[in-house]
Amino acid sequence: MRKVTSKDEFKSAFESTKREALKSFANDEVYLEKFIESPKHIEVQVIADKHGNYRHVFERECSIQRRHQKIIEEAPSSFVDSITRDKITAAAIQAAKACGYFNAGTIEFLMDSKKEFYFLEMNTRIQVEHPVTELISGIDLVKEQISIAAGNIISFSQNDIRINGYALECRIYAEDPENSFLPSTGKILLYKEPNGIGVRVDSGFAADSEISIYYDPMIAKLICWDRDRSNAICRMNRALDEFQIAGITTNKKFLNYILNTDEFASGNYDINFIDNLNYTSLLSDKSSKNNDEYEIAASVLAALKKSNRKSSIKKSASEASNKWWEQKYE
Asked: Is 89 within a domain?
């Protein structure tokens, strides 16, 4: 792929892309498409049965990504207004109908700053992030999927469902964000999930589970729901703090950090958010400042200990002297 920003760049980019395509795929055909500057990743949950019924279950925001891998998902999107929602869900239904699709699926789009959206791809399966949709709609998508596969019609009409509250999902990965996201392997020594109203955990791991190098680093999905976005974020922060995992390194602190940035709080972020965050540098700066503070604190502590030691010596000498006189004249 080549990004072309001017007419002068086009010829060389076109020719080099054709050469690469021929070398990699034995076919030098290429196509052009519009480059979307700093887009959001918005997807629509659709579901259809074998009887020609189609429904959408609103949209999800999946713009917090690293290397095109989703990390935090939200439903609904704080960026999508009701008019845009009607347009993008209608487009998703049309796409599903166009290919005669049935069962659960997801139509993914890129959306620019003007809320114009562009088709990206269709995932013909249940998505990792489907729990946020379940929590705001009350629809059990997996149960619905199985029912449709058995030949039944969809159990709800489009008018039956409404957006209720707000939900977020954080993917808990066995990796070290402070060390270039290096995968973390080994045995989980402690695993205690958070709980409470509006908190859900989907996971297949427990204490003594082994994290190997052969599989995806995701070990759990933490999902939180509340009546609005700000409260859902607060609940997620609390749940992340209460999620206890020892024996391996996880991205929990990194997730907390993202949730507490001004950009995330305002919803003003796009798919480049993590790339622009430069988290490792921020940690380095913070560590440097902390080291200065630690050095000052250590100096103060050393001085106090030295002072206390002198006082203790004088006191001990005084006590010894008193005892000596007491012993002498006893």
From this structure: yes
* Sequence letter at residue 235: R
Q: Name residues whose C-beta falls within 8 Å of residue 281's C-beta, 6 or more positions apart in sequence.
A: none
Alpha helices in the chain (DSSP H): 7-25, 82-98, 130-137, 141-149, 229-242, 252-259, 262-266, 273-277, 279-328
Residue 31: per-residue pLDDT: 86
- Looking only at the bridges linking them, the beta strands covering 54-66 and 117-123 are unpaired
The residues assigned a catalytic role are 125
Question: What local confidence, expressed as pLDDT, does residue 121 receive?
Answer: 95
pLDDT per residue over 76-102, tens digit each?
A: 999 999 999 999 999 999 999 999 999
The reported pLDDT for the residue numbered 299 is: 59
List the chain residues with pLDDT less than 50.
288-289, 317-318, 320-330
- Regarding pTM above 0.85, the answer is no
In Å, what is the CA distance from 240 to each residue of 32, 172, 192, 325?
Answer: 43, 9, 11, 64
Number of domains in the chain: 2
Tell whether 98 and 8 lie within a shared domain: no
38 neighbors 113 (Cβ within 8 angstroms) = yes
Same domain, 168 and 192: yes
Q: Residue 5 is part of which domain span?
A: 1-32
> CB atoms < 10 A from the CB of 300, how many?
10
Backbone angles phi, psi at 257, to 5 degrees: -60, -45
Residues 6+ apart with CB under 8 A from 200: 131, 135, 222, 223, 224, 225
Query: 76 with 221, same domain?
Result: yes
Is residue 193 domain-shared with residue 218, that is, in the same domain? yes
DSSP state string for 209-274: -EE-SSS-SEEEEEEEEESSHHHHHHHHHHHHHH-EEESS--SHHHHHHHHTSHHHHHT---TTHH
Q: Is residue 27 domain-shared with residue 166, that is, in the same domain?
A: no
